[in-house]
Design brief:
The chain is an alpha/beta fold and about 325 residues long. It is about 45% helix and about 15% strand. The protein has eleven helices and ten strands. The strands form two sheets. Strands 1, 2, 4, 5, 7, 8, 9 and 10 form an eight-stranded mixed sheet that branches. It has a two-stranded parallel sheet with strand order 3-6. Strand 4 and strand 5 form a beta hairpin. Helix 2 packs across helix 3. The radius of gyration is 21 Å and the shape is globular. About 5% of the residues have low confidence.
């Protein structure tokens, strides 16, 4: 059985679509798909037979449309409720339960409070996706069976272990963050490090969100747009700080887990110029994913054929069961 582990990475996760296209075109069809965060969204749509619809949706996104999906949350559990995005997923995947899919699918989430790694392999697929991509502080957590869940990248950014636990003998992992922070190192003083300095931040960068909400929704939307898509002076806003911090943690956890439970093949799209909120650049991201997968196709075919041959030979040596 072939397992496919699709990692988290916000907008960079559109590259998963290109990877899946390339694998399927080469005749490589995973039996088990495990996804974290955006990997759960792409993986779930693929297993449910709605990858075409997701790709079409992604390719039509613009910055304006992305902002249109950001519905502000005033309850204090997250900056965005995510209901508009949920409604878009619901329009295609309503009433689809994971256990009724033709292939095994698992979404990874994290339980608030305990920090438990939760494997969602039953129930409504949209709920599983929402829980897996609920970025802390940005999206509101999701309640499933009495448990509050958020982004699975906090505990298992590239879920190779999930594929193996569900019976995969050969696991392909897709890590869309390897070239963003994986070059991180210890720097002794920034003065002589050669690292370019960021632009100066203005005092307004850290204006309390509550005050903005009280004054004007339009001001809140403009603030969020600057925080997500950047500002002229490159000064980080609250959202950017939170997401970048989360991304660094995710990268360190991913490296540790992949070292302890390495996949049989890892596909790492080269995405150095793509930001975590570049959802409007789906066409280029999908193309990068396809190119990355195509680089590994020949080796993948050899590995899979060799693995299948070895498995068949082992079964023959064991003989028929009583």
């Amino acid at each position: 059985m072939i397992g496919l582990a699709l990692g988290g990475g916000s907008a960079r996760g559109w590259a998963h679509i290109g990877v899946l296209r390339a694998l399927n075109n080469a005749g490589i069809h995973p039996d088990i798909v495990a996804g974290t965060s955006i990997g759960a969204v792409v993986g779930g749509c693929y297993v449910a037979g709605h990858l075409d619809a997701l790709e079409q949706f992604a390719r039509t996104l613009t910055r304006r449309k992305v902002l249109g999906f950001l519905d502000f949350n005033f309850s204090g559990t997250g900056l965005i409720t995510g209901q508009r995005l949920c409604d878009a997923l619901d329009a295609r995947l309503r009433e689809i339960n994971i256990e009724n899919l033709g292939k095994r699918f698992v979404a990874v989430a994290t339980e608030i409070g305990t920090g438990h790694e939760i494997w969602l392999s039953r129930g409504p697929i949209v709920d599983a996706m929402r829980a897996s991509y609920a970025l802390p502080g940005i999206f509101r957590p999701v309640r499933i069976n009495g448990h509050w869940l958020f982004d699975g990248a906090l505990v298992n950014p590239v879920p190779v272990s999930v594929c193996r636990a569900f019976g995969a003998r050969y696991v392909i992992a897709v890590n869309v963050n390897w070239d963003s922070t994986s070059r991180g190192a210890v720097v002794l003083g920034l003065e002589e490090s050669g690292i370019p300095a960021a632009g100066p931040a203005e005092d307004g960068d850290y204006e309390p969100v509550g005050g903005v909400i009280a004054r004007n929704r339009r001001a809140m939307k403009k603030l969020l747009q600057r925080q997500l898509f950047g500002r002229r002076d490159n000064g980080p806003g609250i959202s950017r700080v939170m997401v970048e911090a989360f991304n660094i943690v995710q990268d360190r956890i991913a490296r540790s887990r992949l070292a302890g439970d390495p996949p049989d093949m890892i596909i790492s799209p080269r995405l150095p110029t793509f930001g975590l909120f570049d959802f409007h650049r789906a066409e280029a991201l999908i193309a990068c994913g396809a190119v990355a997968a195509q680089r590994e196709i020949d080796e993948l075919r050899r590995d899979i054929d060799s693995h299948r041959g070895g498995t068949a030979a082992a079964a023959e040596r064991m003989g028929p069961r009583d």
